[in-house]
Amino acid sequence: MSIRESFCPLCGQPSAGDLCGRCRVGKTRWMEASPRVECITCPTCGSRKTGAIWQDSPVSREELTRELAIRAVRLIPEGRDAEFQVTSRERSPNRTIAKVQVKANVFGVPVADEAEVEVVWRGETCDRCSRISGGYFEGVVQVRAAGRALSPREQEVATRIACEVEERLKEGGARLSFISRMTGEEGLDIVVGQSRMGERIAQEITAALGGRYTVHPKLTGEKDGKRLYRITYSIRLPRLQKGDVVEVEGDYLEVRETGKRQLKVFHLGTGSMTILPPSSTYRLVGNVRDSVPALIAFIEGETAGILDPETFATREVRMPGWVKTATGSQVRVLPDKQTDRIVVVG
Questions:
Q1: Angle, helices 195-209/152-171, rounded to nearest 10 degrees
Q2: Can you tell me the distance from the alpha carbon of 113 to that of 260, in angstroms, rounded to the nearest whole number?
Q3: Does the reported pTM lie above 0.85?
Q4: Residues near 258 by Cβ (< 8 Å), separated by ≥ 6?
């Protein structure tokens, strides 16, 4: 290597190339910044539009300002180890001035500079909110029970499941999978923005509460040569719920599983599981969720004296063998008002 090649021709400092790093930095525009950037957000839900795509934006306006200001800055490829510091002030409700201070390493030389970026905020209703406000929907999940009204618990469970499905789909990026409205006049109707969301809700409700659902599509038109349907998912919950206690020929049975064609029940007298055929004649007593604690006053053989939770009178009850009891302990009982008996359920 010659002497001429080992020194910078401008400053005389040692250099591995034609110019040393400092002189190269002095002759290079290593940073540029767009003086103005625009951000489109939905005034209803706060989601953000990038190009033609809407995305949920969980960050604050301050954090979004920092992100936009840094993205407005461009460094040359030789810029390394860049550090950004952003301060901002509000000029008006739809204008924010961001000052970006940049430190980096260019051609092995530490450099620093700053730029000012104006962030313009513009409001526009997003695709999701536009569909919701316009009453758009692709499906309806109708929840009904066979031969009876929905119980408050069933209403609560079905509503919770629908909201959880909506939240999971939203977190997964399915922005148009939304619940438009829910009504509970004749049961529970869940109006949804996408049909696949309705199917998932129907699947999870029947998995949790039993019963089955049927699908009823209705042609509503065509778009780009493709047929458009609105689909009704009709759920029919079984006549009996999990936890229901029924009386069959003098025996008390607790419903443990509700299948499509049969019921699995727990015999409260013997402690055994059995199948209750659909053709069986039964009388509904109540549900174990409505049972109350009762004190055992005494035990004589298979008979226990239980204090009636309503009258506090001692009632003699044959204690099932599957229930472990002792004098002074408590059991859960369900009153059978038709026969004036109390049923031990646990």
A1: 140
A2: 72
A3: no
A4: 209, 210, 211, 238, 240, 241, 242
| The pair of three-digit structure tokens given for residue 20, joined into one six-digit string | 């040393």
User: pLDDT tens digits for the chain (346 residues)?
Assistant: 444 557 776 676 776 667 787 787 777 888 899 999 999 999 888 889 988 889 887 788 899 999 999 999 999 888 888 899 999 999 998 999 999 999 998 888 888 899 999 999 999 999 999 998 888 899 999 999 988 889 888 999 999 999 999 999 988 888 889 999 998 878 999 999 999 999 999 999 998 888 889 999 998 777 777 887 899 999 999 888 889 999 998 899 999 987 666 788 999 999 999 888 767 788 999 999 999 999 999 998 889 999 998 888 999 998 888 988 889 999 999 999 899 899 999 8
User: Where exactly are the structural domains of the chain?
Assistant: 23-123, 135-237, 244-344
DSSP secondary structure string, 229-255?
A: EEEEEEEEE-SS-TTEEEEETTEEEEE
Residues counted in the chain: 346
Burial class (CB in 10 A: 0-12, 13-18, 19+), 204: middle
